[in-house]
Amino acid sequence: MLEHHFTCPYCWETISMLLDNSISNQSYIEDCEVCCNPIQVSLQFANSELSGFQAHSIEQ
To answer: Which InterPro entries match (predicted)?
Structure first.
């Protein structure tokens, strides 16, 4: 597991998530721990190291 800090696309607060580096490509929705809005999270690992991370609002 890897702790990763990023900015919420809704409230702009810095939040953290624990990321599972045993799965190389992941995409899921998780609520912000501050404002509770849903965040679309996409991430990639290469050799157990984070190689890509995106966090977007689900509203278009």
So the answer is: zinc_ribbon_bacterial
